[in-house]
């Protein structure tokens, strides 16, 4: 046996750019027998592991190294270990082929000091190979997986409480449900998980076969009531165990792909040193062999302690506090349970001071203070056992430094710079209007009779049509009423009480089925615009009653419709590459930007900066246009419109890929423009400085087809930080919620089928909910605090292609591929 204690000069990561002690090897032991496939145990500051096969060792991290508590009670090799859930007394259960023993560690230490031999309580003998063991919530029961059977025994009376049978393979992991004391969940080599009712001794639920490899680990998250299980091929499966969700599948995570994305984003400066050590395949005999990452253990990690202790991590979001330690043979992974993204990665081979490079079994636990974590490892190919101490604050400083502090926000924090395109465009617009006013002032009133000595009277002014005009609305104090003023009174949005789930009015947009590609409510919530695949744009009343207003002129399916802030104009973009602006009151075209205006077709467009500009994408470029819409027509040249546009600024995506979607706030002044490109990246442009501000690589596994910002509503109020949230969606890759301040995905939403058709997404005016379409003829509503959907809205006859929340009422509109609009109201 060889014992090792790290000194202050050891335990440093040689490739850590910050020079901090991220990982320290606190303890190293050479055993006489390998313990590569033993379920190890860590809790608080205690670690339990077998030595020489049948000797049970317990080490206190805060105690001296030589004070190793050795317990003798097994004749055969120990196969599984587990600590109890209570601290006083601290219990430990050990299993082997010959017996199962429960140890009271406080009593064992007292007997050791008195020179007596510690003894435990034998629960059973000759139970077979036990691969996993767990204590109940109050340590009154012990559950163990003996082959295909789960045995539950009383920890004090040694009597059998239950015997659960149903797995087709050996049980590899089991847990007591934290929110239901009588429920046990188990996973097995038969590649499924089962939920048991211990009080009745019955099976509540049995999953299907999840993967091709055995399931090895299990974790239950009490906050979200979710189950996470890991397999031998590096796959993580997440299920919701909430009562109303009926064991719903939430997500599947490929650990190897997550590791590749983590390296591609290069979250910390020293990561480029490690990228050369990241092959997705190994060359063995001239052939490529795929590297797998078996998930050996799962454990909770709370990062809230480092948020309050380390000022450099003060900008971290609260969503990061709920993380999961993943122990694998190659290293440790810190997975965020909200967005299912890796927060940190520690590969054993990247730290020269570590003795174990490939682990056979692993157990991780958070320290008592929450600032450090302990990892107990056994070597896969040798007999070494090591205890690692991980400094979470140093890890945060090393790997999260570049992901924070960008200082971006949708809300403008400064005035427009004199060199900004927004300022130049405004000045140019003002100068043009001033020139027009000056030209009009030069033209003097002239008589219509061409005699110099005879002047006509009365023709230079407008004729008097009305001889008498009654004075009405005398209480307006001389203020004029606008023709387009909003007289619509909102009763308030009851978002705090319910969400719109009750089916309401349904209409077909055309006589022949025509897909509805996009829908959008006006700012006052009184009208609903939609773009159709039959080249038409239509405007309905918000209640879907009456005759709609139809705009025709496109030569392709209308993919984008956008309302102006003053609700007088409607913008539409079609697959013919043209942009058209329509007058809602005159029901006619005001401005046309055809294919000849830009070198590439217009893909998406919108009004921007409180209707001051037009923002559009063409190929890899984003164009900012100053425009003027004049609905007046000359009687002689009635087909020559007076509307005009003028290019102000052009921005190009850094990668050169074509822009697939863009988004910017138009309801208030904002300098931020968000774009998505075909190379699966997101880019943030700051138009106050007229250049790119940040690029997010590998935002999705496929190109993003829609960006949706939380723009709020005129009828609701939100916190200022909520406007920095935005959603992205890609076909086959679900939805992701991003925070502009940190440029990170803070939550991931999955559960709605979307594999072929680009379905739309929308924020609720209150910012608490999100809706999306799906291909199973349902619309889905997600709560922003949960990764799985809260409501599934039926009643559709085809794929739901678009969704839109009303800004003024608790109402949701949906559109389908067969050309129908459906309303959903609050209960």
CATH topology annotation of one domain: Methylamine Dehydrogenase, Chain H
Strand order of the largest sheet: 1-2-31-30-29
How far apart the termini lie comes to 70 Å
- Summed over residues and divided by their number, the pLDDT gives a mean of 83
How many distinct beta strands? 59
Write the topology of this structure.
Layout: E1 3-4, E2 23-30, E3 41-43, E4 46-51, E5 55-60, E6 68-72, E7 78-83, E8 91-96, E9 99-104, H1 105-113, E10 121-125, E11 130-135, E12 141-146, E13 149-154, E14 160-165, E15 171-176, E16 183-188, E17 193-197, E18 202-206, E19 215-221, E20 226-231, E21 235-240, E22 248-254, H2 255-265, E23 281-284, E24 287-290, E25 295-302, H3 304-309, E26 322-328, E27 331-336, E28 342-347, E29 359-366, E30 372-379, E31 384-391, H4 392-399, H5 421-442, E32 502-508, E33 516-521, E34 527-532, E35 536-541, E36 549-552, E37 558-563, E38 569-574, E39 579-583, E40 588-593, E41 602-608, E42 613-618, E43 621-628, E44 644-652, E45 659-663, E46 672-677, E47 682-686, E48 691-696, E49 704-709, E50 725-730, E51 735-739, E52 744-749, E53 761-763, E54 769-773, E55 779-783, E56 789-793, E57 800-805, E58 811-816, E59 820-825
